[in-house]
Amino acid sequence: MKFTDGYWMVKEGTTMHHPIEIRDIRESADGVTVHAACRNVQIKGDTLNAPLLQVELSAPRKDVIRVRWTHHAGKKAVGPNFELFPEAGFKPDIATDADVLTLTSGGLSLKLSKQGPWNMAFTNYGKYATGSSHKRTAYIQTKDKQAFFREQLDLGVSERIYGLGERFTPFVKNGQVVDIWNEDGGTSSEQAYKNVPFYLSSEGYGIFVNHPERVSFEIASENVSKVQFSVPGESLEYFVVGGETLKDVLGNYTALTGKPALPPAWSFGLWLTTSFTTDYDEETVNSFIQGMADRDLPLHVFHFDCFWMKEYQWCDFEWDPAVFPEPVQMLKRLKDRGLKICVWINSYIAQKSPLFDEGMEKGYLVKTPSGDVWQWDLWQAGMGLVDFTNPDAVEWYKDHLRRLVDMGVDCFKTDFGERIPTDVVYFDGSDPAKMHNYYTQLYNKAVFEVLEEKLGKNEAMLFARSATAGGQQFPVHWGGDCSATYASMAETIRGGLSLGLSGFGFWSHDISGFESTAPPDIYKRWVAFGLLSSHSRLHGNESYRVPWLFDEEAVDVLRRFTKLKSALMPYLFGAAVEASTQGLPMMRAMVLEFPEDPTTHALDLQYMLGDRLLVAPIFRPDGRVQYYVPEGRWTNYLTGETVEGGKWHAEEHGYMTLPLLVAPNTLLAVGANDQKPDYDYADGITFELFELADGASAKAPVYTLGGELLYTAEAVRSGNRIVVTAEGALKPWNLRLAGISEASGVEGGQTAAGEQGLLVNAAAGSQRIVISLAE
User: Fold this and answer.
1) Are 519 and 545 in contact (CB under 8 A)?
2) What's the pLDDT tens digit per position in 257-270?
3) Which residues form the Glycoside hydrolase family 31 TIM barrel domain (predicted)?
4) Which range marks the domain in which residue 705 is found?
């Protein structure tokens, strides 16, 4: 929200009060409380008839500093509030002298000037990060007597800002106005399904504004050298998040707001849906599934979209008897084919649903201030909204899901949750303005808890559309309603990369676009992108998405990339484990892996999949692509061609290839099964070694399907000698030397010719292979 009229003036009728002079500082074991007058106090009378602002400075975790501003403290505290995870027993270091107070948390320090103009400066591991100086912090009253708190933090000359949720606008947020307010606006506007009041800076720090209500950001817009954020009310709380690297910053932020759960390995396979408004029954579903099998297209999850329930009755959680007369038997038949089952739900109860009267009678639906059930006709006729602040309503909702899981359902697509009204009353008295964004957290949490309760840890996953800060704990999320165009494919990538820099580890999208039907060209290009994403789903609006309805080549493309993803699962699942433990996204903006390379800072049409694979999707019907490669000698995994880094490349690709590059000094774990994502990764695994430099080493972890580390393979090169160890390997394993066709000597295994490099089969029981390269 803008409060100024240009740089010099404030808007007419607006009053700003800034901290100017420190009046006292109170230290405690947990932090510091500072009172600042909004005028220079020269005589005792200057203490009268003016605000006194209070700021509390503390540190809930290492490398995190909390700043809380308060004007009037008497306002009743009403939730909801983001759930935070402080570090038990952690306390900041506090030092003070005549001029400066210093509060230090790990490598992050705050220096507050005790004399002269107001100034707070944050230093992150010895480097200035950001700060707030004279007339930047403000308590504001508008001409209509509304109160706001505003902060303006320094923005460096070449500094770039990322994140703020899944945003489809330009990837670099500088120059944008962003309101944190969940809306159902598709992927082609500034509205967003997943709004997160956290941004990441290219200078190596993050800012989390701890307010679930609307937060207004002005990023180099109202003031071009500042990032401004404001909230309504009498207080403002934000956290500065530091770390030695950008990855550390994301790790520290997700430690504060919650790490992503690890989705089950089967969820990384290919999903096929009925699509939205199509006609289908069990015969139709079986025709799709059999058609996939007949064409050697591995399929792993089948999803039933909205019309598995009877029209006008969403949600009643009952299979439409006219279409699915024996759902339990049908689900068993599908699961006997090795498929997992997902069904669509939302948190709305239509008036025609038999559950509406029950929910109304028992007080399970959100009410209006007059005590009536809140209703409207947008989406479902007369629908009400489940009140997840009522524990009994939560259990009521969960019980219906438990029954579906008992039938054979494995996961739920938790659609909607964005259009949440603010003129309502919640069971627990929650502030409806705060609940607008936070509602989705309670909704997805309830569904995730059912799946974890019924299926076990690391077996629960959602397909969720809406989210806010902390929502990363309940994966997976997908990108909402995109269109069947190249432009929409590009905006989809921007949204996913922005969400990944907002703490979310797993993300998907509707392959070939949700709205309309893509031409075969776009379908095939999007398939390659979709199967090189965290999660991969074929879904649309008014038409089926099976590939043979596009053309026969689409079948071949889908087969190639589905099998490729299954083969890459040992590596990809390792990246998934890293996402759940470190808070890093599987799909990573280039800046996250290469922050020292300024060319990567604005790249949003390519990404890293894990830390070793670079993916550059193709957005043109002529197959041309331009992409940037960081320093080093990279290898196209699909063609075996090497690519020199430190520059841009322009290429032309058919539908079977795209730039999928392996970073130098990589030991890539590749599985022996290209038919499904959930198999014993250690059995027959091949470690593929790429461009290992003299004196360098490379590692590749191998995990169980439960996310437990089995062992870590390592390759070390000294001169022409390469030693690869797999200590702990109890099953057969292999080594492939990419780009190397022969060796002068091999110990610990037998060699065989390979298409893209020398293949070595480890001898039975061997955990060590030594290669002597030919001169």
Assistant:
1) no
2) 999 999 999 999 99
3) 260-573
4) 680-773
